[in-house]
Amino acid sequence: MKLLDIKNLRVYYFSEEGVVKAVDGVSLSLNKGETLGVVGESGCGKSTLGLSVLRLVPYPGKMVSGKIFYNGIDLLSLSDEEVRKLRGKEIAMIFQNPDVSLNPIMNIKEHLVEAILTHEEIDEREAVEKTEEILGKVGIPKNRINDYPHQFSGGMKQRIMIALALLLNPKLIIADEPTSSLDVLIQAKTLELLRNLKEEYGLSLILITHDFGVVFEESDRIAVMYAGHIIEIAKNTELYDKPLHPYTQALIKAVPTVTPEEQKLNYILGMPPSLLTPPKGCRFYARCKYAREICKFKEPKTATVGREHIVKCHLY
Ligand SMILES: Nc1ncnc2c1ncn2[C@@H]1O[C@H](COP(=O)(O)OP(=O)(O)OP(=O)(O)O)[C@@H](O)[C@H]1O
Ligand SMILES: [Mg+2]
Q: Of 8, 50, 226, 268, which one has the fewest beta carbons inside 10 Å?
């Protein structure tokens, strides 16, 4: 059964410069227990997509059309109050930047205890016990719980963010670049922790990142995003072994290889288009070595190749 089903979602920012079409007709689903990776270059709309699921798209952003079903519930039809009840308890998010999300004048215990008490009717003693338990799970020692955010390293802050997300036993976690600010070793440890907790708690996970290596290691299925569109979705090994979209093919070639010289040759030429005035046809047109006349004028439909390999390209 599908835990999350996003249908033809459009989310636009009505900025002073014009309308930024950050998410422009995205369809995506997530099965129970699955890890879905969402990968794409900076600015392609990944965070906007993640925030939409929690109905947290900031002003001047707006969900203009589409549907998001969570466990069969139409999230966009719920009242603000009803959505607030889902946040943290059903769906939680690990945000891109812990320094923005953690309040510098609250210690860690206050952060977690307050989060529990606003959602659950238990007394403070129980909330503190739960806080200590969950901090233990993410490897923050008990004697640090009265410390403030600035007293923790980047890796520890990210683990505190994971603890905050887990606190109310959600079923779905959306992790937005949970490790991109960390060095490689701490990144690997944090991802391992997230993977273990996912198993232990029976979670489903959407992992958002620009790092194809990370997404490939961690995901069951991968969705590739480009300039507000999902251009390919497939099982992890299928996508890696048989990428269909020219952009995915280029992305996989650009994954760091043995020597830096080789790597240099493999980056994708050009820049993604502006989302203020996206091209009429295929958004990858200007950078694509297979581009034809039709690609310039007509937006490709989404085709299903084989059982569940989805691609948005005129070649298919
Ligand atoms: N508040 C805003 N006002 C106007 N435009 C915005 C706003 N927030 C995001 N955008 C634009 O929407 C597009 C998608 O942004 P988003 O943050 O979702 O991308 P992203 O894929 O998460 O990027 P990154 O990898 O850098 O985090 C970008 O073009 C961005 O400039
Ligand atoms: Mg982002």
A: 8
